[in-house]
Amino acid sequence: MYAPQSMRIRLSLCAAAAVLTCVQGARPMARQTMSASWPQWGGPTRNFVVDAKGLASSWPSDGPKKLWSRALGEGHSSIAADGGRLYTMYRPAGLLSYVRRSQEEVVTALDANTGSTVWEYKYASPTSGLDFSQGAGPHSTPLVTADRVFAASSRKEIFALNRTNGQVVWSHDLIKEYGARGPDRGYACSPLLYNGTIIMTMGAPGGALAAFDQKSGALVWKSGDVDFSPSSPIVIDVEGQKQLVYFAGDAVAGVDPANGRTLWTHPHKTDWGLNISTPIWSPADHLLFVSSAYSTGSRVLELRQSGGKTSVSEKWFSNRMRIHIGTAIRIGNYVYGSSGDFGPAFLTAVDVTTGNVVWQDRAFSRAQLLYADGKLVILDEDGTLGLATVSPQGLQVLAKASILENLSWTPPTLIGTKLFARDRKNILAFELAL
Predict the structure, then answer these.
(1) Domain CATH for 53
(2) What pLDDT shows up at residue 29?
(3) Per-residue pLDDT averaged across 137-161, rounded?
């Protein structure tokens, strides 16, 4: 079922989607990340937290130093990076796109130092049957491994590409081959690598999720009957047991990533099945934070192992914190994110142990966050980039500048002190060093 047109205000399904998102991981001091790469949705550990150092605490009035910029195209796919290359996806733009959108999509590799094209893989992607009224796909973010790039189209096609030249190694059409449900506003899930398999949401009968062999593309398993959603899954460790967490359309589900067996589910029903953000897991206190807009809100579940089974206990639920299409960060006992449905979305701090909102701040519009060097890097939908420190007492903005000219729902990517950002027309690189 679709949201009424009057309510579909600024809806994105990017797994920017997913914009496209919240975050796995808890306290930044316990993270294990590498700032030299950003190989997937959310960075090295899929949580928008990196160990980069040396970020400036202020910028000139016109913003940080711009290294390069270039035209790109439509889409909300965020930017993966590794080995001096950037990987993202787009739908070609141009004068004709104002009359009729391009009927193809592109996976591209760019030189991180110059923005020049290294290779591109183009494929047909008709817009018929898709609702792109709030922005065209592709929405998914590529996954980069040692020798492959894995990408997902708006029409639920999965491509394994040679990382060197972009040639197809294997591919699957989830709709034609497995009977998956059509993607409505465009597929948004970003691929996840686990133990030699590529895990994706599928949305087929008896196949909410699926895993494919990383090398051959052979189906390893498909399983689950929870409702489909735009969210991208994460892998967590619950007292020694690896679990795949899927923020489905009507529930949160824990799945064995080795075979797809459902370990637990907990209800979290949202209007139109639009759970978009990425859950936040803290192994230190066993708390899982999930949040969505669309008349719902946030809840925290405590996950424990007992007798070989996972026990799930809801600690609290609140409709005051509603992550729509943005990322969020947990620092200590607080989650920070952009909260709001269809109107204003304020940066908000919520106590993860109680659900109490301790402050809200209007300094930025609907925003994407990442965390590095003890600072939040903030990019809002109006193209304003900010640098801030954050605590339970409030937000302290250190620097702020307008860097993008078009609507931006895509989280930025940080490699060392270099920031890569895109909107619906362009991609840019900035230096954030001292």
Answers:
(1) 2.130.10.10
(2) 32
(3) 98
Could you list the residue range(s) of the whole structural domain that residue 181 is in? Answer: 5-431
What mean pLDDT comes out for the span 161-183? Answer: 96
What pLDDT was estimated at residue 271?
Answer: 86
| pLDDT score for 216 | 98
| Count of structural domains within the chain | 1
- How confident is the model over 3-42, as pLDDT tens digits? 433 333 333 333 344 434 333 333 333 333 335 899 999 9
Could you tell me what percent of the chain has a pLDDT over 70?
A: 91
Alpha carbon distance 434, 299 (integer Å): 39
Say if CB 402 and CB 419 are below 8 A apart.
no
Per the CB < 8 A criterion, the answer to whether 91 and 65 are in contact is no
Give this prediction's pTM.
0.91
**Number of residues that make up the chain:** 434
What is the pLDDT averaged over residues 334-358? 94
**Least trusted range by pLDDT, from 2-11, 164-173, 335-344, 384-393:** 2-11
